[in-house]
């Protein structure tokens, strides 16, 4: 039996490519044992607004915590969720074609968040969006497994073997550091996902931009969103 797995750090309201990888595999492992990195996708993402692209950023505690793991990263504000929802609902997407259809479910999620850890918040939004897109992939955590290796590629292989995977899906940027020969020696097929060639959709506030949160796609095309992705 072929089992496909992807292992990626959690991100805040990720772009459509992130959800394509989730939909391509049998198990998606959130690799939040990894070190938290500043100015990355872990706690922020971009949306389209009348004033151009805007970063929505969850403030997190980093002072004196330079080597903290993503799973240990704490939120540094009690109102970030209300601020983000106000920006989304009042400034960025109130005129989007399908915003009203999804307003209630996103509003409920945003305004009821009380989690203090970034990983937990990211997980909630990832699960919510998977539900909207009808993605049924199992989502687990690297913390569910035991990682003994220190080498980055060997850690991935450890997780693949423990989860019973014989095919590993990766984003294209990982080509820069993955030791492909280690996957070959363990007879684990290595598949890189191609992010090129996404079709454009009717998006607010030209010019068109692919690299924004998937909420942009959902609010603009509704249940047609999978047609503008690559895994459906």
Features:
232 residues, alpha/beta, five-stranded parallel sheet, two-stranded antiparallel sheet, 7 helices
Say how many strands there are: 7
Q: In percent, how much strand structure appears in the residues?
A: 5-15%
State the strand order across the main sheet.
Answer: 5-2-1-6-7
Cα shape: globular
**Which blocks of ≥5 consecutive residues have pLDDT under 50?**
none
Q: What's the number of helices?
A: 7
Order of SSEs? EHEEEHHHEHEHEH
Main beta sheet: strand number and arrangement?
Answer: 5 strands, parallel
The helix-and-strand class reads alpha/beta
Radius of gyration: 18 Å
The average pLDDT is 96
Question: Helix amount, in percent?
Answer: 25-40%
Distance between the termini: 22 Å
Explain what the structure shows.
With 232 residues, the chain is α/β, with parallel strands linked by helices. The chain has seven helices and seven strands. It has helices at residues 16-24, 80-92, 99-111, 118-133, 152-163, 180-185, 214-221, and strands at 4-8, 27-30, 44-49, 52-57, 138-141, 167-170, 189-192. The chain has a five-stranded parallel sheet, sandwiched between helices. A two-stranded antiparallel ribbon has the order 3-4. Strand 3 and strand 4 form a beta hairpin. Helix 2 (80-92) runs antiparallel to helix 3 (99-111). The longest helix has 16 residues, at 118-133.
């Amino acid at each position: 039996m072929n089992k496909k797995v992807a292992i990626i750090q959690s991100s805040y309201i990720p772009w459509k490519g992130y959800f394509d990888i989730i939909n391509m595999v049998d198990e998606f492992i959130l690799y939040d044992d990894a070190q938290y990195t500043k100015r990355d996708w872990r706690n922020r993402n971009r949306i389209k607004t009348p004033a151009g692209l805007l970063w929505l950023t969850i403030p997190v505690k980093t002072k004196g915590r330079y080597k903290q793991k993503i799973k240990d990263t704490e939120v540094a504000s009690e109102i970030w969720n209300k601020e983000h929802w106000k920006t989304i609902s009042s400034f960025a997407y109130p005129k989007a074609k399908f915003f009203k259809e999804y307003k209630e479910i996103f509003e409920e999620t945003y305004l009821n968040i009380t989690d203090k850890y970034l990983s937990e918040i990211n997980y909630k939004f990832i699960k919510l969006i998977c539900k909207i897109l009808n993605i049924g992939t199992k989502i687990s955590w690297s913390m569910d497994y035991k990682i003994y290796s220190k080498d980055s590629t060997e850690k991935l292989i450890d997780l693949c073997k423990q989860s019973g995977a014989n095919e590993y899906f990766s984003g294209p940027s990982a080509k820069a550091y993955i030791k492909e020969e280690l996957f070959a020696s363990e007879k684990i097929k290595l598949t890189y996902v191609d992010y090129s060639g996404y079709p454009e959709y009717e998006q607010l506030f030209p010019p068109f931009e692919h690299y924004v949160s998937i909420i942009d796609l959902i609010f603009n095309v509704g249940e047609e969103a999978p047609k503008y992705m690559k895994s459906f």
